[in-house]
Specification:
Largest sheet: 4 strands, antiparallel
Helix content: 10-25%
Radius of gyration: 11 Å
Number of helices: 2
Order of helices and strands: EEHEEH
Distance between the termini: 19 Å
Strand order of the largest sheet: 2-1-4-3
Mean pLDDT: 52
Number of strands: 4
Strand content: 25-35%
Shape: globular
């Protein structure tokens, strides 16, 4: 699984984020493991969480189409 952080210049940083996802769940910010893509925005930072049931943690073109949707 990977985390993508986008700034205003659309620069992307990818890293493992399993512990971050656990923190979001324990804080109640993520309420369902059935959500395909969870987007949490904080000022200019967007964190995309991909749940563990996905076959791959890599973000492909199909995942990027969901960028503008908010859950």
């Amino acid at each position: 699984m990977r985390r993508v952080i986008e700034d205003e210049g659309n620069k992307k940083i990818q890293s493992n984020f399993t512990l971050d996802l656990v923190k979001l769940v324990t804080q109640g910010q993520v309420k369902s493991s059935q959500v395909k893509v969870i987007i949490i925005s904080c000022s200019n930072i967007i964190i995309k969480c991909l749940p563990p049931f996905l076959e791959t943690g890599d973000i492909d073109k199909d995942e990027e189409e969901d960028e503008d949707r908010r859950y």
